[in-house]
# Entry
Amino acid sequence: MNWISEWALPKIKTLFGTSREMPDNLWHQCPSCQKMIFQTDLEKNLRVCTHCGHHMRLSAKQRLDATLDEGWQKIELPKAPADPLRFRDQRRYSERLRDAQTKSGMDDAVVVGHGQIEGQRAVVAVFEFAFMGGSMGAGVGEAIVTAARLAVLQDAPLIVFASSGGARMQEGAISLMQMPRTVIATQMVKDAGLPFIVVLCDPTTGGVTASFAMLGDIQIAEPGALIGFAGARVIESTVREKLPEGFQRAEYLLEHGILDMVVKRAEMRETLARVIRLLRAAEEAPAAA
# Structure
């Protein structure tokens, strides 16, 4: 018998009264430095570790709130066919989809909002990695196409925050068809003379990287973000070579010319507003001349 738990603690509780129950989510452990962070401080710091600066994942709504000025609006997206292939592995795809929708409160892995960033109009599409790994199926393709059309209609730049494991395997060839669809959608924005800006978050991989996510006029990434097509182990086994340290991380890609900049989350909103002002000013100058 443990006399502390069986005898001493009940006696103390009797003397001082029953202690109030403490919430389980008061503290959060950083996955990088393993230090504990007070949950309120973590949320105030946009889910960036206050000890080591590690950027944890943000939900789509948190991302939109942190990026757009107050008063932004979420747009209703077209409904994509649910379970078009009637796919089943250990569970039915329709059940997996329903569970993800219930947990996230979203219809699919992308949310699109429009508003202003420091007074500059913008349409912003954000991936939700918690929704089936941010995988790209027909619903995500519809979301990117709709966001591109809205950007053209509003004469506003299109910004996409990408965070995805790639194509959604449960939709087979239909998910692969979203790659050319999203490329065409982003080309619509460019043909209209509007900026297309991509922010690569952790992780951005697979079919999303192989399509629209690497076609931005400006390519930005968050610190430490994993960006690539195939996983490092797959590449090593294919090329039979040891990959360099930090391969597929944002800083490595910046050094090798794949990215234009790596921006901390606290500075992202200001950076996007500055980039939009510069790009729009460059567009307006020839017209004025």
